[in-house]
Amino acid sequence: MAAVRGSSRTAKGRERAAYRCAECGWTTAKWVGRCGECSAWGTLEEPGPVVGQTRAGAVTAPARPIGEVDLQQASARPTGVGELDRVLGGGLVPGAVVLLAGEPGVGKSTLLLEVAARCARPGAPTLYVTGEESAGQVRLRAERVGAVSPELYLAAEQDLGALLSHVDAVSPGLLVVDSVQTFASADVDGVAGGVTQVREVAATVTRTAKERGIATVLVGHVTKDGGIAGPRQLEHLVDVVLQVEGDRASRLRLVRAVKNRYGPTDEVGCFELADAGIFEVADPSGLFVTRHLTPVAGTCTAVTLEGRRPLLAEVQALVAPSASPQPRRATNGLDSARTAMVLAVLERRAGVRLRDRDVFLATVGGVRLAEPASDLAVALAVLSAQHELPLPPGLVAAGELGLAGEVRACLGVERRLAEAKRLGFRQAVVPPGSYEVPPGMTVVRAADIASAVEAAVRLQRTTPQPRPPERG
């Protein structure tokens, strides 16, 4: 008698789970449209038949002592784009698979086209396979950004088998697949971009890259929540996961490593997206600081760490009387929940009356400050705006605020101070601690928010204020 679908049994007659979620592995005896664990739709699959125990088979290469393994096979090759090499840990490793994800229009294809053109060289050509655009569209963009190279091969395909045929014909040193959600295999059920197809395409491309030693970059889409589209297994299959971040209103783009088997995961690459292409920004601090001719109330410069790189960003605050029973709290570039906490600490621990005030906070240049060490700069900017008291133009602040009003220690204080000194800042308010202060810089160690406020006011009174420009 034929077995009923969805009710398979073991040899002892016990019912076992017949369906498994491709996203999280949740199992159930009956098929449902939505996973009961991760709430994903259409991810339950029926597993194949259970077979006997796996026997020993042929090996690809005999096991060797670890000291005899060739290190050259895992050495990184520079891409020619310094900011990307910084994030990757030196460059692309032969056989490594990189997943580059980001929102539409953030500059993923433009960046990879630039990388492909720089990596294309005689003896190691580059293959760029696009499934989203025609070959003519990619050629037009390559002409615009100056990424045309004789060893850069271009193909427009959406079939996985055709992609493998192009790899056989070109034998590239670098393979770019744009994007993994647009390709499909004729041997697997499902539409392109579905869970089954994305898993099959990623697994096949990864296996080909490992077998032939081809550095491969896969472009991935993101969901409306910011996560990478497709099964979670996609991130486990690849060696490196990079995230491209950026605001449409800003030209700045940040490339951040989420996973990296060959390098650090705390590095950030900075780029500027323009009409002529995407360009490296080796010193991005100047983009986020406004040079005022005269001191302006409500501004304070924060020193944050993006990965290992210190970054200076100006925080601007505006405090105004509220005409509503519910005062407004608006932020741009700052976390709204953390900003609300800083405002509560200011009112409770520093005596700053904000309960009947509208508070607006923003960063300069579209940079997003998510590090807790920017709390102190936010607090000082709000204080300055509330009392119409301009802070010294050469003052920076770094420190995390606790609910008790204490200023907590933050990482890399010496690196932050050195970067501030390099950019011309001469005064700083930081958490207490023993660290080296750059010569010619005045540093105040504040243990709590009240001490930080007092120090800022004292520095403002003792700092010579620049004279406003004369009007002719």
TrEMBL record:
Cross-referenced CDD domains: RadA_SMS_N
Keywords: ATP-binding, DNA damage, DNA repair, DNA-binding, Hydrolase, Metal-binding, Nucleotide-binding, Stress response, Zinc, Zinc-finger
Coiled-coil segments: none
Residue ranges annotated for the RecA family profile domain, each copy included: 73-222
Gene Ontology biological process terms from the UniProt entry: recombinational repair
GO molecular-function terms, A-Z: ATP binding; ATP-dependent DNA damage sensor activity; damaged DNA binding; hydrolase activity; zinc ion binding
One Gene Ontology cellular component: cytosol
Region Lon-protease-like: start-end pairs: 358-472
Chain positions of motif RadA KNRFG motif: 259-263
SUPFAM superfamilies according to UniProt: P-loop containing nucleoside triphosphate hydrolases, Ribosomal protein S5 domain 2-like
Binding sites annotated in the UniProt record for ATP: 102-109
InterPro entries: AAA+_ATPase (IPR003593), DNA_repair_RadA (IPR004504), P-loop_NTPase (IPR027417), RecA_ATP-bd (IPR020588), Ribosomal_Su5_D2-typ_SF (IPR020568), Ribsml_uS5_D2-typ_fold_subgr (IPR014721), Rubredoxin_2 (IPR041166)
UniProt xrefs under SMART domains: AAA (SM00382)
Role according to the record: DNA-dependent ATPase involved in processing of recombination intermediates, plays a role in repairing DNA breaks. Stimulates the branch migration of RecA-mediated strand transfer reactions, allowing the 3' invading strand to extend heteroduplex DNA faster. Binds ssDNA in the presence of ADP but not other nucleotides, has ATPase activity that is stimulated by ssDNA and various branched DNA structures, but inhibited by SSB. Does not have RecA's homology-searching function.
Record comment regarding domains: The middle region has homology to RecA with ATPase motifs including the RadA KNRFG motif, while the C-terminus is homologous to Lon protease.
PANTHER family tied to this protein: DNA REPAIR PROTEIN RADA (PTHR32472), DNA REPAIR PROTEIN RADA-LIKE PROTEIN (PTHR32472:SF10)
Protein name: DNA repair protein RadA
Annotated source species: Motilibacter rhizosphaerae
